[in-house]
Amino acid sequence: MSDRVHQAARPAPAADRSQRVAGVGWLIILAFGLVGVSIGFALVDAGRGEPFMVGVLGILAVFGVATLFAAATGLVRFAGRGPREDLAKALLVSTDEGVLIGDGDGRIVYSNHAYASLTGAAGEREVRSVERAFSGSPEAAEAIYRIAQALREGRSSRGEIRLPAPLGGPAERGGARWYRIIGRPLAIGGRKRPMFAWTVSDISAERARQESAFQDLQHAIDYLDHAPAGFFSAEPDGRVVYLNATLAEWLGVDLAGFEPGSLALADIVRGDGIALLTSGAQIRDRTAIIDLDLIKQNGQSLPVRLLHRVPVTADGAPGATRTLVLNRSPGEEVSEALRAAEVRFTRFFNNTPMAIAALDREGRIGRANAAFVRLFGAAMGRGGARRLVDLVGDADRPKLEAALKAAAEGDAMLEPIEATLGGDDQRSARFYINPVAEGDGGEEAVIINAIDITEQRALATQFAQSQKMQAVGQLAGGIAHDFNNVLTAIIGFSDLLLANHRPSDPSFQDIMNIKQNANRAAGLIRQLLAFSRRQTLRPQVLALGEVLADLSILLQRLLGENVRLELVHGRDLWPIKFDLNQFEQVIVNLAVNARDAMPNGGTMTIRTRNLPAAEVGRFPYKPLPEAEYVLIEVGDTGTGMTPEVQVKIFEPFFSTKEVGKGTGLGLSTVYGIVKQTGGHIFFTSQIAKGTVFRIFVPRHVAAEGEVAAAHAESGPEIADLTGTATILLVEDEEAVRAFAARALASRGYKVYETASGVEALAVMKESGGEVDLIVSDVVMPELDGPSLLKELRKTRPDLKIIFISGYAEDAFRKNLPEGETFHFLPKPFSLKQLAVAVKETLGR
Residue 666 and residue 769: Cα distance in Å, rounded? Predict the structure, then answer.
């Protein structure tokens, strides 16, 4: 009963032509054919017409039986609505949206009552297509055309149209209306012509709700913008995406030019205070009260109190902050004295470079200042660590935990504790632990003061290493000086013996072996002097690209076939001032070490480039002063070095090679040469990846007319080394003095021998000034070489002198008057070198 009532109450379709028979013409022809056959049988004689009538009846009977059989099997269905069609039409009839179905020629197949009501149609004949229904509205023409065009192309389309009055009614019926129109193509089997479904909905009420919500939102934004408190929101990366008008006015920010993300937290938060806002572990998913100073656009400070919250997204990541800002400037609060005191304390608390935090009895971190969050922020973020002992390395936790426990029990006599920071063995801090005397020991039982001592420890380590290297260098230099005297005597007397023996003599070869081994020992001594920075250098302006290009042939032979050499030159390299021979020794030593680090082959790369002072800070090396350098990188793809080896790599006599395969002086020599030249050398090494040595050579600003050299220059060979001048030989080492006196006498010179500077002054008086040249040691007891020269210049300002020493020329030049000219001969020297030096000096 209720079903029938519902069916009766449901409105009928406004137009339904979907059940009309498409083949009416064929039915009429069939009817006329049957009538014609009947008339023919009536006019024909009964006897002759009977067989034809029986035949026609048989054919009709066959068609009838076939039709019944097809209907029984479902092949033929008689006219009538099936249950599916009833359901579909019931749905279309009951929907509140207007539905119209038409074909490609604009003919209407079906429309429901809602469509007729929306378009103002009173009956089936007044139902119009969508194009015609909206044709009278210029506002709708473009949208209707676009949707119709999409349907003809087989695509769905939609649009929203605003009309000044309802369709089919005057404006008094409700004023302007919004309509949503959707067009969809229909795929119906058996139909050649396309079918389209149009849906028309009156969305005026929905639009009114949206406009109301938008107005409410505008009001809310206006309320927030002009609230008596500031407000901002920032993304986790620090970009400020919202700033209300109140805060913008306080900070002097022009909202007209403000774009979300154009302002960063670092632009409005002073000093380390930004760490308090960006440390997600401390403030995530809870409201934190933070007192700090903001920065106005004019650079002035704005004391504020922040109610700061960092929400957590569904995946656990921090979201955009919600931060309420309370102005704490003078006159903004009632309790002015208390406000001023709090502001002063907050500034002191957050701007001090010392990290400060309050701990409870369990060691959990309570309030912390900006320096503390900056120092431990990264560690606090890992795993949400909240206890102080969780922020230090495993080895230092027991002693720190014991100290915190003692402080919580009231012990005030605690020594500072140094500990490495958790997760980073390179960073360290010193903790000062103080108990809280007053209170019941609730939230604040212990006050922690921490200082980052990472750089201090690094400098202490570097200073200790520097002192060790200096001490070893002094020892090496002293040993080298003494050995040079011994080697000078050995090499000199060997030369004297060789001068009296022919190559055919049996002892000639033995003497040569003595001299060769002495020269070999002299080479080791030179390396020790290089490490101790006391070797003699002849610096000259070098064109680095040409020097390395010439050296590459030698390097390729040294490296062998398994190691590939790559040279990468920077453009327009600045000139450097370096001893050419020593520079080549540096590169060769590094190349040999690179070759030995690649036993199975690899690549050695030498890369050069200019390094402006502004880029020096990119390197982590300390100490490396900011200046203009030419950077030389020598890298290999070898085995790398362990941390234990890296600590000792520049120490003399330290070697990772097998016994007998290295002296351990190669890298120490490189270190000394670079340092003596005023440069710096550092390295980076990784196991199984290789090592890169970086040499920073100061840029040389060439004087006018100064030309860079690519090759060492040597003077012309002197053929005649004899002479007749008078020479005063001053040497405290008896063996060296004896050899030098015999060598000079054998070349025709008259020689006076003295063992000290005091004796030399006495001889000068006795000789009456006939001495033409003085050959003097530098380091002597009583009166050294430079002091002797100063005394002699008082009476003989033009006297020529040759200084001989096992130390570098620069070691004593600073003790001579500026502009003093002299010749220098480093020990050990041979007979020929001494004779050449004397001949050149006398010939000047």
Answer: 48
- What gap in Å lies between CA 185 and CA 297, rounded to an integer? 60
Distances (CA, A) of 350 to 293, 344, 370: 9, 10, 5
Q: What is the DSSP string of 332-353?
A: SSS-HHHHHHHHHHHHHHHHSS
Q: How far is CA 565 from CA 213, 458, 546, 556, 692, in A?
A: 73, 35, 16, 7, 14
Rounded to whole angstroms, the Cα distance separating 213 from 115 reads: 29
In the three-class reduction of DSSP (H, G, I as helix; E, B as strand; rest coil), residue 102 is classed as strand
What is the rounded CA–CA span in Å between residue 50 and residue 704?
Answer: 140
Would you say the C-alpha torsion 477, 481, 486, 488 has a positive or negative sign?
A: positive
Q: DSSP letters of 259-272?
A: -TTSEEHHHHB-GG
Query: Given this model, what pLDDT does residue 612 score?
Result: 93
Are the beta carbons of 674 and 541 closer than 8 angstroms? Answer: no
Closest by CA to 698, choosing from 578, 617, 598, is 578
For residues 579-611, b (16+ Cβ closer than 10 Å) or e, as one string? bbebbbbbbbbbbbbbbbbbeeebbbbbbbbeb
Cβ neighbours of residue 189 under 8 Å, at least 6 residues apart? none
- Specify whether the CB–CB gap between 327 and 305 falls below 8 A: no
Separation between Cα atoms, residue 683 and residue 76, nearest integer Å: 94
Nearest to 808 by CA among 652, 681, 676: 676
Beta strands in 438-592 (DSSP E): 446-452, 539-542, 563-568, 576-579
Instruction: Please calculate the CA angle 439-441-442 and round it to the nearest 5 degrees.
Output: 105
Q: Which two structure tokens, joined as six digits, stand for 829? A: 């020297």
pLDDT of 658 reads 59
d(CA 703, CA 725): 39
User: For the sheet containing 773-777, what is the strand order?
Assistant: 750-754, 726-730, 773-777, 800-805, 823-826
Looking at residue 129, what is its pLDDT? Answer: 83
Per-residue tokens: 453: 């001592």
Half-sphere exposure at residue 380, Cβ-oriented, CA atoms within 13 angstroms? 22
Residues contacting residue 358 through CB under 8 Å, at least 6 positions apart: 365, 366, 367, 368, 436, 443, 444, 446, 447, 448
CA–CA distance from 616 to each of 347, 459, 576, 611, 820 (Å)? 34, 18, 17, 7, 38
Q: Are 123 and 113 in contact (CB under 8 A)?
A: no
Series of mean pLDDT values for 10-residue runs along the chain (844 residues): 41 62 56 69 64 72 69 55 64 80 81 83 81 79 86 88 74 71 81 82 85 78 78 87 86 83 83 69 65 83 84 80 81 59 68 80 80 71 64 84 83 81 75 72 75 75 62 62 74 79 78 78 62 60 86 85 90 87 84 89 93 90 88 93 84 64 67 85 91 93 61 58 86 86 88 88 83 87 84 86 76 70 81 86 79
> What's the confidence (pLDDT) of residue 8?
39
Helix (H, G, I), strand (E, B) or coil at 157: strand
Give residue 606's pLDDT. Answer: 94
Cα-based angle 26, 29, 31 (whole degrees, multiple of 5): 110
d(C-alpha 844, C-alpha 840), whole Å: 6
The CA distance from 395 to 126, in Å, is 93
